[in-house]
Please model this.
Amino acid sequence: MWYSLLDFKSLGQGEIRAQVMVNNDSPWFSGHFPDQPILPGIAQLKMVADLLARAGRPGQGIKRLNRVKFKKIVKPGERLEIQVAATATAGLYSFRISHEAQDVCSGMMTLADNPY
Model:
């Protein structure tokens, strides 16, 4: 796995909280960017989808993204806090990723019933 799951809590009522560490040797850093590696936004979104799957949420892939904002660069070895909460709409989740109390990424994610 290209990141380490340090802590995972499914709090009920559709809420998930987790701490992850982006591994220094993650393949995401190999070409993004030489001498100044940063974690691509798609990798951040993948972590959110992975956590939803781990919590047994319905859906098998990302169908739609809304209001996604990338606010801070993620570097190798950083510890991230991820919060995900279900909304009143089935399959729609709000999420927030932070590092040291600063927002890294936030938005809304709709999961697809079938990835194909």
Observations:
- The two ends are 23 Å apart (CA to CA).
